Amino acid sequence: MTIHELLTPELEQEANITETFLQALPADKFAWKPHEKSMALGQLANHIVEMFGWIPITMNQDVFQLADYQPSQLDTPQALIDQLHALLPAALGAVRKDDAVYQEMWTLKNHDTVMMQMPRYNMLRSGVMNQVPHHRAQLGVYLRLLDVPVPASYGPSADMQ
């Protein structure tokens, strides 16, 4: 089995789970933060969705310039869902590469400073795909603190039993 054959169903599953979390977002709480150092709920949700857009960047570019990064600022649950749906086809297409492409070096730079450099596969897994469930779990804590039922992820949540 090729790398992309392994990653494709996982990516589809993560997108589906993410959509259920986006559907649960309270539209009137996008500015809410559980702590002053935390991202706002809307900022965190945007970050999760934009990760799906980072997949083509990781797979189709050798270098990403962090200085050019502009975070997404969508302000409704539906806008985030629409963006997820818009980004997913390109993400799925981007992982359809020969296994050799996954071994090529990928670089994150901030102007002239190399922030990190690693094989494309490692960046895709640790820097992008693994970040989706990590940040989605944070979003689940936000929902819990706001007394919003938390959707199931990989099994039932306490609210979905």
Write a short abstract of this structure.
By secondary structure, the chain is mainly alpha-helical. Helix content is 55%, strand content 10%. It has one domain: Four Helix Bundle (Hemerythrin (Met), subunit A).
Structural commentary:
The protein starts with a helix and ends in a 16-residue tail after the last helix. It is built from 6 helices and 3 strands. Strands 1-2-3 form a 3-stranded mixed β-sheet. With 161 residues, the protein is mainly α. The protein has helices at 3-24, 41-60, 77-94, 99-102, 120-129, 131-145, and strands spanning 63-65, 105-110, 113-119. The mean pLDDT is 96. The chain has one domain (3-145): dinb family like domain (Four Helix Bundle (Hemerythrin (Met), subunit A), Up-down Bundle), CATH 1.20.120.
- Reading the helices and strands in chain order gives HHEHHEEHH
In one word, what is the shape?
globular
> First CA to last CA: what distance?
35 Å
Using DSSP, what is the number of strands? 3
- Corresponding CATH architecture: Up-down Bundle
Determine the structural class based on helices, strands and strand pairing. mainly alpha
Provide the domain count. 1
Percent helix range:
55-70%
Unreliable stretches covering 5 or more consecutive residues = none
Largest sheet: 3 strands, mixed
Mean pLDDT score: 96
By CATH, the topology is: Four Helix Bundle (Hemerythrin (Met), subunit A)
**Strand line-up across the major sheet:** 1-2-3
- Portion of residues in beta strands equals 5-15%
Q: What's the level 1 CATH class?
A: Mainly Alpha
| Full CATH superfamily name | dinb family like domain
